[in-house]
Amino acid sequence: MAEFPPDDERIDELTTLQSIYPELVLDFDHPPIPTARIELPVAPEKPLPVVCDSDSSVRNLSHLPPLIIDIILSEGYPTERAPTFNLTADPPWLPDRVLEQLMEKGHALWEEYGGMQMLFAYLSFLEESARTAFGAADSARDGVLKLPDTLRTPMLELNEKLGKELFDKGTYDCGICLEPKKGGACHRIRHCGHVFCKACLQDYYNNCIKEGDVNNVKCLSPDCGKTGDVKVDRKKKDRLLSPKELLQIPLELETVKRYAQIKRKKKIESDPTIVFCPRKWCQGAMRTEKYPKITDVSQMDESDIEDGEPVAAPKATDQEIKFRGAPNTDRLVICEDCSLAFCKVCLAPWHGDFERCINREQKDLTEEDQASLNYILKNTSPCPTCSVPCSKSYGCNHMTCFQCKTHFCYLCGAWLQPENPYGHFNNKKNKACFQRLMDGAMGDQANGEIRFGGRRGAEQEAEFWEQEALRIQMEELGG
Amino acid sequence: MSTGAKKRILREYAECQNDPLPGVKINFDEQNMTKWEILMDGPDQSVYAGGHYKLEINFPNEYPFKPPVVSFKTKIYHPNVSNDDKGSMCLGLLRPEEWKPPNKVISVLHLIRNLLIEPNPDDAIELSIANDYKTNRAEFDKTAKDWVKRYAK
Question: What range(s) does the UBC core domain occupy (chain B) (predicted)?
Answer without folding.
Answer: 4-153
